[in-house]
User: Which sequence fits this backbone?
């Protein structure tokens, strides 16, 4: 693991992710992994120990991907139940390092990562982004988190089994399951509000969990000062989740006008994940996605952009997410250019910085180059305000990644 401390960055052009302006000729001072001062540069700065001369580069905050699965090293999620947790962690370490070197210094894992993965990154055993984890997603029997085929009955509910979900039915069971995830330090609870693509026995247009079950989960999360993230595609599933207090909707490809109003009424977030459908269609079979799951992709593939446009025009808070599985995770940065079909560069940048930070409740730490915030910084050889491909093509435009004041290699 190659990391070098950075004390200051001189001659920086800083991208303001709140006002979308560039400030030139600035020096960013870093102490203990945080930005301690932002001031005008002088000629002595570049001679300081552990200094970076950023002349000609634009500095922006590290990116936030609000929907990842760092343990999903295969698209065949049911196979994870047969993996050793040590093997799953080893595979996830490679995926996380790649995310970090693409400029994603923070990610929200919405099923799979646990306290062990997060601690391993925090303590430096794995090189990767900061992880806001939810542990195992909650699913009803036969729901999107139930990866058993129709002839399989056994479920390994051990917390160290590297599956993405836990099956629970009824108010008593969902309360206990919520508390189990929260006691491990989960930052949120992920629930399945509708069917999905990767699960073998449910329909995409099904609705899952009863109203009372959803309300119980929300109540448990709020009691712990946490929130609920809900997987949902159809407007019916999305809207009932929003009414029950679910704070973020994952995917939302089939939302309607009522959904937009409910998002705004409840101050909730939408996290579209458009790139995953493109590559599930193109690469899903090679990545291990079953034939049954591949048939479901078309139901949501073409609707995603329309939903993103509807939510954008309606003023919904939209965070950046990708949801890629297995080897398809290398396409993470393509989400930027896909969204550019219906969003402005400013809107896309905000989704991966300030809005992501707000979703995480970390506005003072993440999402902007700011005094007191984490020194999670990107050095770019182009201006993403002018060309969003600067973020979509890190291999060309990303000159450096700094996380917690350490330059990543």
Assistant:
């Amino acid at each position: 693991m190659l990391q070098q401390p950075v004390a200051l960055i001189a001659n920086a052009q800083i991208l303001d992710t709140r006002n979308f302006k560039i400030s030139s000729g600035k020096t960013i001072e870093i102490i203990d992994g945080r930005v301690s001062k932002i001031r005008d540069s002088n000629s002595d700065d570049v001679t300081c120990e552990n200094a970076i001369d950023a002349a000609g580069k634009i500095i922006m905050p590290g990116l936030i991907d609000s929907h990842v699965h760092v343990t999903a090293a295969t698209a065949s999620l049911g196979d994870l139940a047969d993996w050793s947790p040590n093997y799953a962690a080893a595979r996830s370490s490679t995926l996380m390092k790649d995310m970090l070197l693409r400029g994603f210094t923070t990610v929200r894992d919405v099923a799979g990562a646990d306290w062990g993965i997060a601690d391993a990154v925090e303590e430096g055993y794995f090189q990767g982004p900061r992880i806001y984890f939810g542990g195992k997603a909650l699913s009803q029997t036969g729901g999107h988190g139930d990866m058993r085929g129709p002839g399989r009955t056994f479920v390994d509910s051990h917390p160290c089994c590297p599956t993405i979900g836990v099956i629970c039915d009824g108010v008593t069971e969902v309360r206990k399951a919520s508390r189990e995830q929260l006691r491990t330090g989960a930052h949120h609870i992920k629930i399945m509000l509708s069917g999905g693509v990767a699960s073998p026995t449910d329909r995409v247009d099904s609705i899952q969990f009863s109203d009372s079950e959803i309300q119980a989960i929300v109540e448990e999360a709020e009691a712990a000062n946490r929130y609920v993230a809900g997987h949902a595609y159809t407007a019916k599933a999305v809207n009932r989740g929003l009414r029950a207090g679910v704070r973020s909707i994952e995917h939302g490809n089939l939302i309607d006008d009522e959904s937009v109003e409910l998002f705004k009424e409840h101050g909730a977030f939408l996290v579209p994940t458009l790139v995953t459908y493109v590559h599930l269609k193109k690469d899903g079979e090679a990545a291990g996605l079953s034939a049954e799951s591949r048939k479901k992709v078309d139901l949501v593939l073409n609707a995603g952009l329309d939903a993103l446009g509807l939510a954008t025009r309606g003023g919904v808070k939209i965070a950046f997410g990708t949801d890629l599985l297995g080897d398809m995770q290398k396409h993470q940065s393509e989400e930027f250019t896909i969204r550019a079909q219906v969003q402005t560069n400013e809107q896309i940048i905000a989704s991966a910085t300030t809005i992501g930070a707000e979703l995480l409740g970390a506005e003072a730490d993440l999402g902007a180059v700011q005094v007191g915030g984490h020194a999670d910084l990107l050095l770019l050889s182009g201006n993403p305000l002018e060309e969003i491909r600067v973020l979509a093509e890190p291999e060309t435009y990303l000159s450096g990644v700094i996380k917690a004041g350490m330059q990543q290699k």
